[in-house]
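Predict structure. Chain length: 281.
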Amino acid sequence: MFRFDIDIFMEEIYDSKRQYSCVIINRAKRVAVVCREGGILVRQLIQRLKDCIAIVILSVVLLAALLTAGGYQTYQRALAERPVANVIKEIHAKPSYVCLSEVPQIYKEAVLAVEDPRFYKHNGIDFIAIVEALWRDLKERRLAAGGSTITQQLAKNMYFPMDYTIERKIAEVFMVREIENSYTKNEILELYINSIYYGNGYYSLADAGAGYFGKTVAELNAWECTLLAGLPNAPSAYAPNKHPELALQRQTQVLNAMVKYDFITQKQAKEILQQCPENFL
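Prediction complete.
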């Protein structure tokens, strides 16, 4: 006959609990070991990542130092071969040289608006324009021209016209400081107008005005001034005798920039565009 022994039953329950507890404890130990090992691995990975970042930063700093040193040497060589004062004398000696006072005001405003609207506020390098150019490049997913000030363009044309290396760009910065420390803003703008390339073999505003329109600088009207102001950005592409449609598109960009920076109103921009000669295209 079946007999139920409560003591045996309770002992079996106790044994079961003990065995279950051992299983849980063993599993907890294994989890703790795994977590501890995982924690060690994570810390090792973090340390390796920190080491890699430190190496990258150090490499960038060293590379920047080497490029800066190379750029400074390039600047010194260029300056030794052709002192700034001598190059300026060469520009002044050009038969087509004109003083800034002879240049129509609207031309000067057009150049400032489209090339360097903060020209009179910065010291030769416009960091705001550089950031804007980088942001534009990121949005357009391409390397677009932009960010160079009038002084930078002048330095490039005077010393490094065909050199597109990083060292040249750094040398250009040193040359910009040399020019900005030696000449006033108006003198720099005057030099720029008399040495920048306008396409079709014209290396001054006077040459461009005479070559494209048969006029002296003082005779140029608002339409002609705003057209010419846009050419240095891409002289070969915008040369009006070869690509009049592109020249007009660039002129519209110039006028839009003038409106943006409050040199003229939208109504005045429209009136200037309407002055386009019928036989231009």
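Summary: The chain has twelve helices and no strands.
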